Amino acid sequence: MGKYAKVIATPNIAVIKYWGKRNEKLMLPTNSSLSFTMDETLKTQTEIQFDAALKEDSLILDGTRLAGKEFEGVAKVLAYVREKYGQTPKAKITSKNHFPTAAGLASSASGYAALAVSINAALKLDLDGSELSIIARLGSGSASRSVYGGFVEWQKGSKQDGSDSIAVQIANENHWPKLRNVIAIVDQEKKKVSSRAGMAETVATSKLFKERLEFMDQRVEKMKKHVLDRDFESFANLAMLDSDNMHACMADTTPRIVYLNDVSRKIMTNVRSLNDKETICGYTFDAGPNAHLYTLEKNVPAIQKMLSKIAGVREILVCKVGNGPRILEKG
Ligand code: 2P0
Fold first, then answer.
1. pTM, to two decimals
2. Architecture in CATH for domain 3-173
């Protein structure tokens, strides 16, 4: 077949959040972030075929051909690869997200990680994880972290050209086998502000965000230690603090950004009650009302029970730490 690959990649969930860019074109963040890549409960499958007979690049996502703004990320990734690794034929990309319908879970991380890994496999470029993370980042910042399994730091870097803004695996998928992310899918309206637009407004207008940045290096280092020590209590408490702090910065943005709703807030209150005697659960929320609840395997039933009693929780998914992108075929 030649220059073909089929790849699966999965989303990641950040325990120290990325919110804010210092360079929008190169997608360079204002702070480092830390996540773990999830298992294949949620996944994107991407096929890519480079072929000299094709007249243009194309992407069919979940059966729909994307154009204009929706194709910009892919165009940017392909342009970077062509400039850096030489002329390549046009690409036909077909991608499918295996996510619960309309769950409001972001698929850009798994999507662009799958794209970066499939390009590398199809063109036999033999790139390392750092370079794959740079390619994925150009499509979506959080995707840089999904090119690895396990626990991953996206280092913000300091160079203007972004060559040191890369993801690094800090522990592999076998490091903390008992850790779970229980996802509560919450009823919601369509997202009003995209993360990309929202974070730009926060950077431009929030004073609280400037203060957040002063703590972030230290916070990432602390979280790395909690992960390496498998110190669940410290891990969960720091994840909650960082999520609360990011959502406070969103609220401090002009115009105010609110992604959480009453169901999200009810979940937060219930987590606090569950943790009354001992920390068995931590929460984190991305740019939407769905809750991601960290816990250890033995406490999953208690979390599911708590969630099942909350009106407005539509679905509950339980994810483990995953092993990163998988190449299914290449040729
Ligand atoms: C994160 N989020 O660290 C944070 C937490 C949302 C809240 O990464 O503009 O879709 O494509 O770089 O990666 C969502 O932002 O934004 C995100 P772009 P992205 O996971």
1. 0.97
2. 2-Layer Sandwich (3.30)
